[in-house]
Write a structure and sequence with these properties.
single chain; mainly beta; OB fold (Dihydrolipoamide Acetyltransferase, E2P); 3-stranded antiparallel β-sheet; two-stranded antiparallel sheet; 5 strands; 12% helix
Length: 74
């Protein structure tokens, strides 16, 4: 059974740029339920704007904690 993890993220464009420069590969945040999660930055690249990546998100994972999808919450 898949599980969902909600988290908020406020990452500037310059902070995300470190991914392209090779000095960062993962993003680590505290989920709404208090767990620390770390995931590949490419999983949220689709949400990158000139302001960065800002908002509330929900990530879906398999029961084995494999990435399925992520969506930005309205």
């Amino acid at each position: 059974m898949n599980q969902s993890i909600r988290f908020s993220l406020q990452l500037s464009y310059d902070q995300y740029l470190r991914v392209y420069q090779g000095s960062a590969k993962n993003i680590s945040v505290i989920a709404d339920d208090g767990r620390r999660i770390s995931f590949p930055a490419r999983n949220i690249q689709q949400f990158l704007t000139k302001d960065g990546i800002i908002g509330c998100f929900e990530m879906e994972l398999t029961s084995e904690y494999k990435f399925v999808a992520v969506e930005k919450l309205g």
